[in-house]
Amino acid sequence: MKKIASVIASCAFALVAGAAPELADYTVEQNADRMVIVSFILTEKAILTMDVLTNGVSIGAENYQTFRDAMTNVDEFPANKAVAAGPHVFTWRPTKEWPGYHFANGEFSVAVKAWSFDAPPDYMVIDYNVKSNATFYATAADIPGGIKTAADPNNITDAEREILTNDVYRLRKIILRKIPAAGVKWCMGSPETETNRRADETQHYVTLTNDYYVAIYPLTRAQCKRFFNTADAMSDLANIYPKPNQSYTGARGAIASYCWPEDGHSVSSTSGFGYMRARTGLQFDFLTEAEWEYACRAGTDDRWNGMTEDEICWHNLSNSAANYYPGLKKPNAWGLYDMHGMANEWVLDQYGDYPTEAVLAPVGVTTNANLRILRGGVINFKVGSSWTSTVSTRSAFRHKFDPTKTQTSAPNPFGVRVSCPAVLPDWMR
What we know:
Blueprint lengths: L1 E2 L4 E3 L2 E3 L7 E8 L5 E7 L3 E9 L2 E2 L9 E2 L11 E3 L2 E7 L1 H4 L10 E8 L7 E5 L6 E4 L20 H7 L3 H4 L1 E7 L5 E4 L15 E4 L4 E4 L5 H7 L20 H5 L19 H9 L8 H9 L11 H4 L31 E7 L8 E2 L11 E4 L5 E3 L2 E3 L10 E3 L12 E2 L3 E3 L8
Parallel strand pairs: 2-11, 3-11, 16-19, 18-24
Antiparallel strand pairs: 1-4, 4-5, 5-10, 6-7, 6-9, 6-11, 8-10, 12-13, 12-14, 14-17, 15-16, 17-25, 18-20, 20-23, 21-22
């Protein structure tokens, strides 16, 4: 066996700033059979991600999925998950998995990164078929199958849809993006000069205290049937269109017993979120209104994330939002799709006036329990002599409704986008 410095120039690994996990005695070697061997000691349990690169560019996660940890008897990819402390030996035969591979001196590297459970990677994926389990990825490009967007969603054939999208993430898996929110002061609401502004969008400064994960798509019928255990038809297990008729109380439980913010994140065990929590081991819930708008804006301060309405959302003027499935329009800067248009998304807050002063991690008012807020969907408003969606698809627009009700009429269904804390629970640690 020899060290392959001549073949692998750098064995890169990195740590989250200030995080405790460390990779010690990190080496990369290759034996006479051309097997690549990555050895290290992990000082404490952590989430590991890895990548294989040539000339600093990833060869693609699909080309190195046969890595295994020789220190365990588990026949599965050894990274993108919580990994125990101690010595590890990752092995890989590129000649079998990466046909036609070629290493030139100084061009090949293996990057392993250790992440704290309090500061996990940017992407998390949950799989309905694997109870109490999550996988993690440093970038969207690392997610198996990838996330793809249609070049022209207004002119795309059914065959092209299969190429441009990966339906597993609309059926039995959910991709969540970590939103970098902790300590950021930003302006919520809309300026008085914004076109089609409403009176309840008073601008005020908000500082959120924690990062959080949020699904990159609104839940589809198939995902709600699985993760929320809804009473929809069995045929919905293959339906990748957005869930159109979800009530707030069906997702969380009766307002009298599970009232936000008075009862915090407590939900009924028989509700949609109750079932989802039992299945995943994660504290899923709606976003607060401030969390939703911060995630929607992704650092922008205009109506549609620096784009036109038609670029970023389906709306009633483009043949009904209910006729399309999530992920075909352009995402925002944080990779979230369909925050504008498509389904109206419930948030936790009771409806009420915004404050005028700066606030820290707002939870909303406590005087209007039977009127809850929806954000981001499509509602027709008459402006002058014409009906338009350009009022409701703006980043700042607020809709309110009875939380026990659903809305099934196109183009303004009531749907759900799930979220959970970015500080991971004890059972993972």
